[in-house]
Amino acid sequence: MRPEPEPVGLPEVYAVAGYADEVRSVLLAHKERGAMALAGPLGAALAGAVRAVAPSGPVVLVPVPSSRRAVAVRGHDATRRIAVAAAMALRRGGRTTRVAAVLRQGREVADQAGLSGPERVANLAGALVAARGAGRRLGAARVVVVDDLMTTGASLAEAAAVLRAAGGRVAGAAVVAAPPDAVREAEL
User: Fold this and answer.
1) Residue ranges per structural domain of the chain
2) Residue 60: phi, psi to the nearest 5?
């Protein structure tokens, strides 16, 4: 299943868990309450989704960026932190992996909480930009867009579109959690 309505350009998405109960609690503890010790286990879970997207070969993980305001309020960039942990887990398994934080928010966006799928797409349209030299930094490796959570897919679709325009070879997207019926689940 895919999110309904599905945003244009949404790549294939894999998740390791449904966004409910304990998974929701763990993600919120890491993201909103600064439980940094959870970055390792969340990164290991995210690595499972990355393996489902791109089973072999070099891979570049590109985290969906948080707003500067959100990073300042939280005191950390949760998605980037788990992307780094996922890359470390993949490298320990012998996989050539790196993180390239080449996406930035080019303009302010409204808080996505409470917005419908179409409202999220409109909110994010044109909001992300690729950093100067992004295509060169991505190289020829397959790119996997990563985030902690997918709800409507709007952020992942916008990120993938910007990366493709910058010359990235987007293989798909990997998240820790998503609505249980929205994406294909990956094994840990």
Assistant:
1) 13-185
2) -115, 125
In one letter, which amino acid is 64? V
Instruction: Pick 13-185's CATH classification: 3.40.1130, 2.40.30, 3.40.50, 3.30.420.
Output: 3.40.50
Tokens encoding 40 = 């390792």
Task: Please tell me whether the overall predicted TM-score, pTM, comes out greater than 0.70 for this model.
Answer: yes
User: For 66, how many CA atoms within 13 A lie in the half-sphere containing its CB?
Assistant: 21
Task: Give me the phi and psi of 53, to 5 degrees please.
Answer: -70, -50
Residues 76/55, Cβ–Cβ less than 8 Å = no
Q: What whole-number distance in Å separates Cα of residue 59 and Cα of residue 76?
A: 24
**In this structure, are residues 150 and 178 in contact, taking their beta carbons and an 8 Å threshold?**
yes
Give pLDDT tens digits for 12-65: 999 999 998 899 999 999 998 989 999 999 999 999 999 999 999 999 999 999
Q: d(Cα 91, Cα 58) in Å, to the nearest integer?
A: 10
Determine how many CB atoms are found less than 10 A away from the CB of residue 164.
15
